[in-house]
Amino acid sequence: MRFQNTVAFGFPQIKNKAAPFLFQYQASRYFSSQLQSEQKRRSSFGIAFDIDGVLLRGKDPIGGSPQALRRLYGDSGNLNVPFLFLTNGGGIPESRRANELSELLGVKIVPSQVLQGHSSFKSLLKRYENQLIVATGKGEPAVVMSEYGFKKAVSLEEYASCFENIDPLAPYKMWTTKLGLDRSSPPLNTVPRYDVSSETVKAVFVISDPVDWGRDIQVLCDVLRCGGLPGQDNGHQPQPPLYFAADDLEYQAAFPSNRLGTGAFRIALESVFNRIHYNPLEYVSFGKPNPFVFKNAEAMLKQLQPSYHSDYFKEPGDSGSQSFKTLYMIGDNPSVDVKGAQQAGHPWFSILTRTGVFRGKHNHAEFPADLVVDTVEEAVDYILGRECIS
């Protein structure tokens, strides 16, 4: 709603000397009631949804997720309640993930509503923008990093192909996939190839759980213990920095039982590296439950917050944003979603569903949530009821 400088009111005509003062009083009451109405309509809360095990299992919606999300939009399709997806998953750019979620869940999702495990890697752009980096994980790791602005990002698969015999088991890997069989169209933002045989790798990024653990552990051990250049005896060179997008041991996918995640790969890599190297593996893990991720989510939710204040009511320098009274984290993994919300502190409120990693009858013992529900639809029902929104 916008108020113009000229406003016509339908007040009854008053014929006495006190009319100007009464008019001012009624106008003041009118504007005050309008402002209070707008402030009530303005959301003082936001929601962060995990994806796997909360909204989707594989590609299938679960727990009434499409219906739950539709309640957060107005009749015109505009966002009434600011929400985003806070997931440790990844492997593709946020723009493509937003399109996928829109199709699967039946609501319009924009890229700014998608925070994946590797989204935090954007914060390292200034440090490595023009440096050779290696990215690994399922999906298109080099494409993801290139879209963030890293100019010399190569996938581990491409990197390994530049070193003959670096993977001794390569001749025995004859498997093919549907993705591998489709070579008719080039990938989005094809990553340029570099002569990496003499250039040291400045950093390694694991953006999601890798596909070929054996090859990746072998090549990463070569890169990390040789100062960034495999096959070279560089003495006691410093280990290039290693960054993980997440550290989930398990996650809920399409299979009924939990699947091993990026954290499991980290444990395997660390175990092998520490057995063959004189110094223990050094690494940094992003993703939930890192409090940095929740701070970033809060900042993004403020940008998504519907701005109902009119220009008429804005003070000079007022951006129209306000602090949240409550931010709800809806997840299925106590050690990731609930723990992260607890570490982030106010204004986060954790809600645990029973549709994914967590299946307990009662609350989790080590990381108890503020609320436990069966499905995400029940979680949204609770939130809207608590916030007095029909």
UniProtKB/TrEMBL annotation:
Alphabetical list of Gene3D superfamilies matching this protein: HAD superfamily/HAD-like
Keyword Hydrolase found: yes
Molecular-function annotations in GO: hydrolase activity
Annotated keywords: Hydrolase
Pfam family for this entry, one: Hydrolase_like
Gene Ontology cellular-component annotations: mitochondrion
InterPro entries assigned to the protein according to its UniProt record, in alphabetical order: CDP-alcohol_PTase-I, HAD-like_sf, HAD-SF_hydro_IIA, HAD-SF_hydro_IIA_CECR5, HAD_sf
Biological process (GO), any one: glycerophospholipid biosynthetic process
PANTHER family on file: CDP-DIACYLGLYCEROL--GLYCEROL-3-PHOSPHATE 3-PHOSPHATIDYLTRANSFERASE-RELATED (PTHR14269), HYDROLASE FAMILY PROTEIN _ HAD-SUPERFAMILY PROTEIN (PTHR14269:SF49)
Protein name: HYDROLASE FAMILY PROTEIN / HAD-SUPERFAMILY PROTEIN
Natural source organism: Salix viminalis (Common osier)
Top-level taxonomy: Eukaryota, Viridiplantae, Streptophyta, Embryophyta, Tracheophyta
